[in-house]
């Protein structure tokens, strides 16, 4: 590479990255990345999980130091030794996972990240003014713990804007927003662009990128596979660049459910909040029939985790008929009792909840199956039949195409997607009558996601009832026969997939829909 | 130059096997420095300490007597520690088991026959288990910290024993010495090979317990439950295992074994109750459990090593004229180094120069590649 850059090019680029490389042990997370962001553009960074997006961004923001390569800011070579260096240069970052203290107010959280020592009242006033001027209204006096996820994101954005950055990095900003909230955010971003700010927009949602971004850089396996103008591409062509081959979506054959047996039903389930920041469940009714997939949509933190715990029996109900599995009262049964009735569960968190990280896959198979497959896996006097468990684990690994480095590795040694395939496969393997899955493909790459979704559809079509809780609307529209929405601990009536639109579901996710109120009155 | 710890992607199999040996070597080096500072030739000291106590057959019997309670208690503690439950009160369960097991020979000395000894052993185990159930109850009911409650109950048990042997249980014909009557022959644990030394059945109990617990932990569903709940409690709950029940199981199992050790010690090595019946076996067993890598078979080896430090301490006192508290110092250093060396299983050490070149990767400690 030549050492000099022409003056014109250097002036147009706010940030330029050349040959940036980062190595973790034997893994090259970023391999000679080249990237240029012009002034006043929204630049998309596309890539699957594990493509190196987060690593690249951390190097740009100074929280990781690159192995080799250089970063130019306004044509000057700079070293990002820490986030404060990046902030001083004029780079602001809005993280995917918020770094806010729930017990403090919005203004206090903002004050913590500013180091100018201004009094809290001044900061609150500034934040309020800025938030209204950008159409992101925010009450600086409110406790973060009481705010919705979308509102928390506003705090992060305002906090970033208060430092008057030239470049704003947003990491998967819409993954926690309703479609309407996302639209609001896009307007703000377009305004910022009009003011001459640059934005690096990280996402895997292709439609958004096509709509919003001027240019895109696509990463795959740590390498840049192409720069393009997303407006000239189709979603399919962008996906091909990201994944490297065609991604087929799951096929769902329509089904008639008239007269089908009700396999899972929830009648008037309520649950008090377990802690100050958890959501109560309010009078939830639902039913899933044999052959059906019911999707539950909702913005994160609206009670989905609490609902899963109540369904799985990790938290039991006061009355037996609050949860019924295959027509039998299950409310007072623990998770083992519910499994013995034919139910299977896949929690949201893989490591530490669905699987014990430091245990082998075969042991993790035993984890959820020791009771249901007691005869096969546990011999007389409580001795474990290790051979049978190992063979069953290998069968699942093969059926779900789990990629691994050893015959029976520890769960923590697998990538997230492969572990998820194993955990879903572990439950599918016993052909459960009722399957409850929370975020089936969160953080899973496109190929594996398609595999998991197809497997869920096939399970349902073979006569089981499947309940899928997900934040990914595309996923729910792909696989569900009906979609209900959780908001603030309440569940809407299910909308049949033929009548469901993104707009309808989005309104319910925001909590404003007349049908929602009707439902409450009806059951009160 | 400075040292830096870098997290390993997987736990190192090599270092989990080597760590106890490295720790032992470091203890010897530190011990040599200690002896040199005391003005004693370290070689002489180590010979006196570690070799001379096992040069004759009767001395091996003594070693078995010291190692038996350590192994018995430590295999029970290994179950607790593997399930992430911290029973620090084995000394108290040892004492309480000894008290309950001694009810028959002390209060009903006329009761004699082959059934007496088994009954005493069972009562000792029940006594230890019940005493261990107290911190388990407090933890599950009131969420108290079991480390504190189990430790404090040690002193309660010790003072209770002290009061018994000075008061209601004192031998009326014992010239006012604070001790109970001598146990009658049918209440005494038989010796294994009376021709060559004093070692008694207690050592057999220890070996049997180690093998049984090893089978439990490595082959049985219950052992799986213990390991799951210890390593990731939330996954354990997802599996349908109850942590509260595990607290009782682990405490009562280790309490029963400590109680068995207590009654075996009293009926075998001592032959009566007296104000002090243990040179800190219940605490030393914690070291044994960790030195044995919480593996019951490793614990047998570790129990013999720690038993030797007791004998070495006695030898050093008589031959070198230094306090037998040196044994405690050794034990303490050993635990210190064992826990320190365990860091090597999950981390590797590397040297970092003072001025790293700009292109050098500064190691991210907790950062993981995405």
In words, what does this structure look like?
Chain A contains 19 helices and 21 strands. With 524 residues, chain A is α/β, with parallel strands linked by helices. In chain A, strand 14 and strand 15 (328-329) form a beta hairpin. The longest helix of chain A has 16 residues, at 179-194. Chain A starts with 6 loop residues before the first helix and ends with a helix. The model of chain A is unreliable at 1-11 and 514-524 (pLDDT under 50). The radius of gyration of chain B is 23 Å and the shape is globular. Chain B has helices spanning 13-37, 42-51, 57-82, 90-101, 103-107, 116-142, 146-166, 202-219, 221-231, 233-239, 243-270, 281-291, 296-319, 325-346, and strands at 2-7, 347-352. Chain B is built from 14 helices and 2 strands. Chain B has a two-stranded antiparallel ribbon. Chain B is mainly alpha-helical and 370 residues long. At the A-B interface, strand 1, helix 2, helix 11 and helix 12 of A face helix 9 and helix 10 of B.
As a percent range, the share of strand residues of chain B is under 5%
Number of domains of chain B: 2
Give the amount of beta strand of chain A, in percent. Answer: 15-25%
Low-confidence blocks of residues of chain B? 355-370
Shape of chain A: globular
CATH fold-level label of the largest domain in chain B: ABC transporter involved in vitamin B12 uptake, BtuC
Given the structure, what is the number of helices of chain B? 14
Separation of the first and last Cα atoms of chain B: 30 Å
Number of helices of chain A: 19
| Name of the CATH architecture of the largest domain in chain A | 3-Layer(aba) Sandwich
Oligomer: heterodimer
Structure in a nutshell:
Chain A has 524 residues and is an alpha/beta fold.
Write the layout of secondary structure elements.
The complex is a heterodimer of chains A (524) and B (370).
Chain A: H1 7-12, E1 13-24, E2 27-38, E3 42-46, H2 53-60, E4 68-73, E5 76-78, H3 83-89, E6 91-94, H4 106-113, H5 120-133, H6 149-161, E7 167-171, H7 179-194, E8 198-203, H8 206-212, E9 215-220, E10 223-228, H9 235-243, E11 262-271, E12 281-289, E13 293-297, H10 304-312, E14 323-325, E15 328-329, H11 335-340, E16 343-346, H12 361-369, H13 374-377, H14 386-399, H15 416-428, E17 434-438, H16 446-461, E18 465-469, H17 473-479, E19 482-487, E20 490-491, E21 495-496, H18 502-510, H19 514-523
Parallel strand pairs in A: 3-8, 3-9, 6-7, 7-8, 13-18, 13-19, 16-17, 17-18
Antiparallel strand pairs in A: 1-2, 1-4, 4-5, 9-10, 11-12, 11-14, 14-15, 19-20, 19-21
Chain B: E1 2-7, H1 13-37, H2 42-51, H3 57-82, H4 90-101, H5 103-107, H6 116-142, H7 146-166, H8 202-219, H9 221-231, H10 233-239, H11 243-270, H12 281-291, H13 296-319, H14 325-346, E2 347-352
Antiparallel strand pairs in B: 1-2
Helix pairs in contact in B: 1-2, 1-14, 2-13, 3-8, 3-9, 3-11, 3-12, 3-13, 4-6, 4-7, 4-11, 4-12, 6-7, 6-11, 8-9, 8-13, 9-10, 12-13, 12-14, 13-14
């Amino acid at each position: 590479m030549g050492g000099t850059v022409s003056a014109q090019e250097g002036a147009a680029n706010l940030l330029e990255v050349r040959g940036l490389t980062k190595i973790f042990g034997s893994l090259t997370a970023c391999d000679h990345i080249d990237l240029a962001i012009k002034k006043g553009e929204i630049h998309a960074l596309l890539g699957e999980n594990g493509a190196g997006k987060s690593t690249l961004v951390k190097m740009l923001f100074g929280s990781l130091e690159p192995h080799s390569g250089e970063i130019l800011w306004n044509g000057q070579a700079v070293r990002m030794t820490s986030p404060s260096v990046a902030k001083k240069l004029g780079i602001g970052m809005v993280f995917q996972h918020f770094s806010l203290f729930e017990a403090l107010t919005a203004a206090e959280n903002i004050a913590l990240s500013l180091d100018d020592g201004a009094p809290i009242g001044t900061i609150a006033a500034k934040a309020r003014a800025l938030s209204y001027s950008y159409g992101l209204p925010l009450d600086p006096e409110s406790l973060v713990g009481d705010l919705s996820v979308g509102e928390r994101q506003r705090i992060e954005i305002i906090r970033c804007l208060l430092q008057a950055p030239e470049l704003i990095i947003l990491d998967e900003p819409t993954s926690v927003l309703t479609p309407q909230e996302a639209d609001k955010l896009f307007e703000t971003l377009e305004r910022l662009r009009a003011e001459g700010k640059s934005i690096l927009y990280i996402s895997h949602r292709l439609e958004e990128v096509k709509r919003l971004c001027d240019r895109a850089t696509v990463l795959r396996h740590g390498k840049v596979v192409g720069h393009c103008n997303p407006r000239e591409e189709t979603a399919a062509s962008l996906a091909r660049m990201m994944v490297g081959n065609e991604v087929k979506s799951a096929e769902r054959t329509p089904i008639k459910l008239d007269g089908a047996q009700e396999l899972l039903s929830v009648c008037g389930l309520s649950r008090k909040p377990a802690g100050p920041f958890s959501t109560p469940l309010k009078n939830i009714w639902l039913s899933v029939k044999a052959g059906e997939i019911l999707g539950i949509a909702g913005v994160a933190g609206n009670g989905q985790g609490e609902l899963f715990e109540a369904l799985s029996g990790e938290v039991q109900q006061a009355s037996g008929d609050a949860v019924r599995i295959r027509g039998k009262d299950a409310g007072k049964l623990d998770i083992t009792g519910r499994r013995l009735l034919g139910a299977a569960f896949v929690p949201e968190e893989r490591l530490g909840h669905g699987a014990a990280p430091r245990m082998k896959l075969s042991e993790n198979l035993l984890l959820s199956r020791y009771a249901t497959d007691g005869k096969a896996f546990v011999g007389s006097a409580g001795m474990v039949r290790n051979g049978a468990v190992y063979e069953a684990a290998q069968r699942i690994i093969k059926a779900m195409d789990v990629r691994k480095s050893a015959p029976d590795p520890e769960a923590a040694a697998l990538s997230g997607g492969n572990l998820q395939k194993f955990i879903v496969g572990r439950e599918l393997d016993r052909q459960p009558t009722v399957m409850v899955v929370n975020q089936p493909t969160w953080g899973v790459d496109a190929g594996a996601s398609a595999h998991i979704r197809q497997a869920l559809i096939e399970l349902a079509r073979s006569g089981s009832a499947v309940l899928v809780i997900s934040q990914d609307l595309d996923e729910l529209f792909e696989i569900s026969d009906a979609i209900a929405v959780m908001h603030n601990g309440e569940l809407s009536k299910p909308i049949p997939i033929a009548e469901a639109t993104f707009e309808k579901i989005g309104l319910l996710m925001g909590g404003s829909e007349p049908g929602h109120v009707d439902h409450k009155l009806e059951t009160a | 130059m400075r040292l830096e710890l870098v997290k390993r992607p997987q736990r190192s199999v090599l270092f989990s096997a080597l760590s106890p040996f490295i720790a032992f070597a470091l203890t010897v080096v530190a011990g040599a420095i200690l002896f040199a500072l005391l003005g004693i030739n370290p070689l002489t000291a180590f010979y006196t300490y570690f070799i001379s106590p096992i040069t004759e057959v009767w001395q091996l019997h003594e070693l078995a007597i010291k190692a038996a309670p350590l192994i018995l208690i430590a295999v029970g503690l290994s179950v607790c520690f593997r399930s992430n439950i911290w029973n620090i009160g084995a000394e108290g369960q040892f004492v309480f088991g000894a008290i309950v097991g001694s009810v028959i020979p002390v209060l009903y000395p006329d009761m004699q026959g082959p059934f007496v000894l088994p009954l005493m052993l069972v009562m000792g185990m029940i006594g230890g288990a019940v005493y261990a159930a107290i911190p388990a109850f407090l933890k599950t009911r009131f969420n108290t910290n079991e480390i504190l409650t189990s430790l404090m109950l040690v002193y309660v048990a010790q003072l209770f024993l002290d009061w018994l042997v000075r008061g209601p249980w004192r031998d009326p014909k014992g010239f006012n010495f604070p001790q109970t009557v001598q146990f009658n022959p049918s209440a005494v644990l038989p010796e294994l090979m009376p021709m060559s030394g004093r070692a008694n059945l207690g050592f057999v109990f220890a070996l049997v317990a180690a093998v049984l617990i090893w089978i439990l932990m490595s082959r049985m569903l219950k052992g799986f439950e213990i390991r799951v709940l210890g390593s990731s409690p939330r996954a354990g709950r997802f599996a349908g295992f109850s942590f509260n029940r595990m607290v009782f199981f682990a405490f009562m199992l280790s309490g029963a074994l400590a109680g068995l050790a207590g009654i075996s010690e009293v009926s075998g090595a001592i032959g009566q109750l007296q104000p002090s019946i243990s040179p800190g076996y219940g605490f030393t067993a914690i070291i044994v459990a960790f030195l044995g890598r919480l593996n019951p078979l490793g614990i047998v080896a570790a129990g013999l090593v720690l038993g030797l430090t007791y004998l070495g301490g006695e030898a050093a006192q008589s031959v070198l004229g230094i306090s037998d508290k040196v044994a405690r110092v050794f034990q303490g250093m050993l635990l210190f180094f064992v826990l320190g060396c365990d860091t090597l299983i999950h981390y590797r050490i590397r040297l970092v120069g003072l001025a790293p070149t700009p292109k050098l990767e500064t190691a991210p400690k907790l950062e993981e590649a995405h």
